[in-house]
Structures are given as C-alpha cells and as structure tokens.
C-alpha cells in the first residue's frame, strides 16, 4: 500500500515513546532515515549498526543477516532505541540485539512491521523516501 510522506510523518509526530533512551541505533541502511526523523524529537546520540540481509528490492541477499562492520560504539548499560525501516522475519533485529546484549534495555522501532514501537504493520508498504 502506498503511503504519502505526510501520512508517514504524521505517525512519526504522534507516536509516544514510553521511556527515555540514551542512544538511538540505526540499522544501516534502512534505519538511517527513520532514526534521523526520530532524533528530531528525542535529540539523542545516533550510531549505525551495519547489518545486511536484503537487497534494494527487499529480496534476501544471504541465508542470514551479516554484520558488515564491527560495532564500534559503547552499549554497556545503555537504554537503546534500535531503529529499522521494516521488520519482516525479525532476523536482523535479533542479530542486532545479540550484538548489543550488554545494553541495559533495547526497544525496537520499525516504520513497518512488528516492533515495540511501529508506525504501520502492513503486508505491502512502500517507503515514500525511496526513489
């Protein structure tokens, strides 16, 4: 289903976060735009976690997610909001949580899919910022 940029931004404006976070971690590349939008409200440090599973057409590239670069930021005892554009199978999010298991809390955010915080949960969703 096609959503307009204004529809998506309105969901970003009205979503309520029930806790405070120390750090926003964006799964690159899909989580970069959503993390930037969220940070307009939360004003927290953003770090990138480079994990890849799918190509630009959302087809799996690998049998399981791959870490492309090492985690080079501190997560120990931090409250983290882990951001991705879409959560389908949860494999990437599970890998990210395992990589950051020393965090005090990890809550997930997805523009589309099943997460602690999600804007939409639709089977077919086109992101308005993808050209």
Structure overview:
With 131 residues, the chain is an alpha/beta fold. The chain has a single domain, classed as Rossmann fold (3-Layer(aba) Sandwich), CATH 3.40.50. Helix content is 23%, strand content 29%. A 6-stranded mixed β-sheet has the order 3-2-1-4-5-6, sandwiched between helices. α2 (32-42) links the parallel β1 (23-28) and β2 (45-52). It is globular and about 40 Å long. The protein starts with a helix and ends in an 11-residue tail after the last strand. The mean pLDDT is 90.
How are the SSEs ordered, and which strands pair?
Layout: H1 5-14, E1 23-28, H2 32-42, E2 45-52, E3 66-67, E4 79-87, H3 91-99, E5 105-113, E6 117-120
Parallel strand pairs: 1-2, 1-4, 4-5, 5-6
Antiparallel strand pairs: 2-3
Structural class: alpha/beta
Adjacency order of strands in the biggest sheet: 3-2-1-4-5-6
Helix count? 3
What count of domains describes the coordinates?
A: 1
Quaternary structure of the protein: single chain
The CATH architecture classification is 3-Layer(aba) Sandwich
Helix content: 10-25%
Overall shape? globular
Give the DSSP E fraction (strand runs of 2 or more residues).
25-35%
Tell me the total number of β-strands. Answer: 6
Arithmetic mean pLDDT: 90
- The helix-strand sequence is HEHEEEHEE
- Give the terminus-to-terminus CA distance: 16 Å
CATH hierarchy, class = Alpha Beta
Largest sheet: number of strands, sense, barrel closure? 6 strands, mixed
């Amino acid at each position: 289903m096609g959503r307009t940029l204004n529809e998506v931004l309105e969901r970003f404006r009205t979503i309520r976060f029930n806790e405070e976070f120390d750090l926003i971690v964006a799964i690159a590349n899909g989580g970069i735009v959503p993390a930037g939008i969220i940070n307009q409200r939360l004003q927290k440090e953003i770090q990138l976690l480079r994990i890849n599973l799918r190509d630009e057409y959302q087809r799996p590239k690998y049998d399981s997610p791959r870490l492309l670069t090492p985690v080079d930021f501190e997560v120990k005892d931090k409250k983290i909001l882990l951001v991705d554009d879409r959560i389908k199978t949860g494999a990437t999010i599970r890998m990210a949580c395992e990589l950051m298991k020393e965090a005090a809390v990890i809550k997930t955010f997805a523009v589309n899919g099943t997460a602690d915080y999600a804007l939409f949960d639709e089977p077919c969703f086109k992101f308005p910022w993808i050209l």
